[in-house]
Structure formats: structure tokens, C-alpha cells
Amino acid sequence: MYSSPFRCTGSCMYRSSASRSGIAVRYAWVKPSAGSPRSGPTVENTVDSIDAIAAEQFGALLTGPVESRSRLGTRKLPASELREVTENAVATFLRAFGSDR
Length: 101
Description:
Blueprint: H1 17-28, H2 43-46, H3 49-69, H4 79-97
Helix pairs in contact: 3-4
Protein name: Transcriptional regulator TetR C-terminal Proteobacteria type domain-containing protein
Pfam family, one: TetR_C_7
InterPro entries: TetR_C_Proteobacteria (IPR039536)
């Protein structure tokens, strides 16, 4: 029988339902299709859609290296390594999006 080396899979990636909810609110509000009963803010009436894409890209610049270096959360990263990832993500983001604003 297969036994996963990870203590947790799937929904426990985020520590609490509140953090999962916060992430969902940041990334999941998209314009409902015509005739959809779903109501709520849309990308068009909350933030510029380009800003939403930029925020998602910045999140990826942070989470990708952290997940890779922490072996998908199985080892704790030291603060110095988190600082390095953050500085690199900010520098890359500013090179990509910072010149036109």
C-alpha cells in the first residue's frame, strides 16, 4: 500500500480555513458569466484587471521558490532564506511592472 511521505495533503496546505478564504477572495473574484446568479465584486469594479494579474504574478514569485526550497512545506526555511526569496521576488516584480507607473 502506498504511504505518502507528507503528513498532510490537499486542504491542509493552508493552516486555516480563514487563510484559504483570504486567498480565494484575492484571486477568485472574476466577472460572472451572463445570466449567472453569482453576485459580488468583479475584477472590473474592484481593481484594474492588470493589477489583479500583477498581484497574482507577485504571489507566484514568492510562493514558487518558497515551496521549492522548503520541499513543499516539509522543512522550515530560515528567516534569512525567506528574506532572500522576498528580495528577489520584489526585484523581479519591479523590473517587470515598475517602469510604467
